[in-house]
Amino acid sequence: MAKQSAGLLMYRILTRGPEVLLVHPGGPFFAAKDDGAWTIPKGEIELNEDPLVCAKRELTEETGIVATAGSFLALGSIKQAGGKLVHAWAFKGDWDGVLRSNTFELEWPPRSGRTKMFPEVDRAAFFSIAQARTKLNAAQVVLLDRLLAALSAQLG
């Protein structure tokens, strides 16, 4: 069975239109990557864990943001290139600009016998929908379309 993750796409509405919060993976493998490397804050669903609970936990672990919105818009699921199934929701929120990410340990450089700590997320930023289409992992771009459709439906 394919691995499953859950994540949240936080958005805000400005006079020039909606913006979404994306995160950039930390560690040496993504250090020189930008376009196509950003993602929604997400993580693997634990055994018997509710996917929305997982998505909220991952947002907090990766950014320090606590999702307290009363309403979460279901954006459905997408399958990434590696086969991972990602369940996503959107919510309206804002961010103070201070990134508080958890860390992970990795042997670096490879086969050196030394381990180094890296932040799980090394950057986070709000992007316009047009910018986000370029920054996001290609499989996740459809989540932007689903967000726009959900917001349009809300406005009637």
Short summary:
With 156 residues, the protein is α+β, with helices and mostly antiparallel strands. It is built from 3 helices and 8 strands.
Search tags:
156 residues, alpha+beta, Nucleoside Triphosphate Pyrophosphohydrolase, six-stranded mixed beta sheet, two-stranded antiparallel sheet, 3 helices, 22% helix
Describe what you observe in this structure.
The chain is of the alpha+beta class and 156 residues long. It has one domain: Nucleoside Triphosphate Pyrophosphohydrolase, CATH 3.90.79. The chain is 22% helix and 36% strand. The protein is built from three helices and eight strands. Strands 1, 2, 3, 4, 5 and 8 form a six-stranded mixed β-sheet that branches. The protein has a two-stranded antiparallel sheet with strand order 6-7. The mean pLDDT is 94.
Secondary structure elements and their pairing?
Elements: E1 4-14, E2 17-25, E3 42-44, H1 51-63, E4 73-79, E5 85-92, E6 103-107, E7 115-119, E8 121-128, H2 129-135, H3 141-155
Parallel strand pairs: 1-5
Antiparallel strand pairs: 1-2, 1-3, 2-8, 4-5, 6-7
Overall morphology: globular
Number of strands: 8
As residue ranges, the low-confidence spans are none
- Secondary structure: helix percent: 10-25%
Strand content: 35-45%
Derived structural class: alpha+beta
Our Rg estimate from Cα atoms comes to 16 Å
Rounded to the nearest angstrom, the distance between the terminal CA atoms is 39 Å
Mean pLDDT: 94
Tally of contiguous helical segments: 3
H and E order: EEEHEEEEEHH
CATH architecture: Alpha-Beta Complex
The major beta sheet can be summarized as: 6 strands, mixed
CATH homologous superfamily designation: Nucleoside Triphosphate Pyrophosphohydrolase
CATH topology: Nucleoside Triphosphate Pyrophosphohydrolase
CATH class call: Alpha Beta
Q: Could you say how many structural domains there are in total?
A: 1
